[in-house]
Amino acid sequence: MIIKKKKAYRVVVKQEFCKGCNLCIEYCKPRVLASSPSLNEMGYHYAEAAKPGECTGCMACTLVCPDLVIEVYGE
Ligand code: SF4
Ligand code: SF4
User: Fold this and answer.
1) Which of 15, 18, 68 to mutate for ligand 2's pocket (most ligand atoms within 8 Å of CB)?
2) Which domain holds residue 48?
3) Do 13 and 69 form a contact (C-beta atoms < 8 A)?
4) What is the pTM of this model?
5) Which of 38, 46, 54, 67 makes a 20 to 30 Å CA pair with 20?
């Protein structure tokens, strides 16, 4: 029997460019992303990967982010 290892993904938010619109958080079905309690230099609560191990690599967050500040890598 072959057991396939679940593929891992790494979500990178360029936090200094995030305007805190929360679109990526709304579209992430596994609820990987959350609004940080901290502020970035522009004064926004930036998005961050609160549960990175739950990422399915669907790329929805990268597609909805108006400022293209999210990247997802398969590892
Ligand atoms: S790639 Fe999909 S599952 Fe992973 S953080 Fe983005 S929206 Fe969520
Ligand atoms: S969609 Fe982009 S700009 Fe909006 S909160 Fe997410 S990372 Fe930030």
Assistant:
1) 18
2) 12-74
3) yes
4) 0.92
5) 54
Residue with tokens 């549960």: 51
In a domain, residue 3? The reply is no
Choice between 44 and 1, residue whose per-residue pLDDT is larger: 44
Tell me if 35 CB under 6 Å of ligand 2. no
- Using alpha carbons, select from 15, 13, 7 the residue that is nearest to residue 57: 7
What integer pLDDT is reported at residue 2 of this predicted model?
Answer: 76
Report the C-alpha gap between 61 and 71 in whole angstroms.
Answer: 9
pLDDT of 3 over the 90 cut: no
Q: Is residue 51 in a domain?
A: yes
